[in-house]
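# nightly structure sweep
# worker-07 picked up a monomer target from the shared queue
# config: single-sequence mode, recycle default, output format = structure tokens
# input follows
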Amino acid sequence: MQQTAASFTAPFTYAYAGDFLSASVADSIAMYDARYSAVQPIRNPNKRQIAAIVGAVETLPLPSKAAFVRFKQICPDKVLGKDSLETKRFWRRYEEAIEDFAEEMGDDVDCLKIDNATATEYRSKLVERLSEGEFKADAANKKMMWLKIILMRFSASITPARTTRSKT
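# output follows
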């Protein structure tokens, strides 16, 4: 893939699946159109060219510090109708959760790949700090809750919606 990226200059910007899902219908169509236009001049694209065009490469890691910025981009509707002070207060709780996570787990943790083991490790560290009297149980629960909301929203923006079948 690295070789393809160097030799194939795409006439579009790389986007992961979440960008297509969170974009408006018109923007999604424009994004797909650019990809289809890029394929036309290539008579017999090889596997690497196809992968470069459709974006079948691993998404770039999302370090914890960048996660908050990305979360605000994904969820602008959360602050609709709020004045600037309310908006600042609203976003601050999420920012503090990410900052605390980064401080405990390290800045290099990829927020898109946090698994149960990582979450359990972070929870254990919160419990340890709780037992030391650094904060109360309610504050620890809120840290976990805000972080969970952020991670669930990332997951929803990256993974296409699943359809459920009714059992008949």
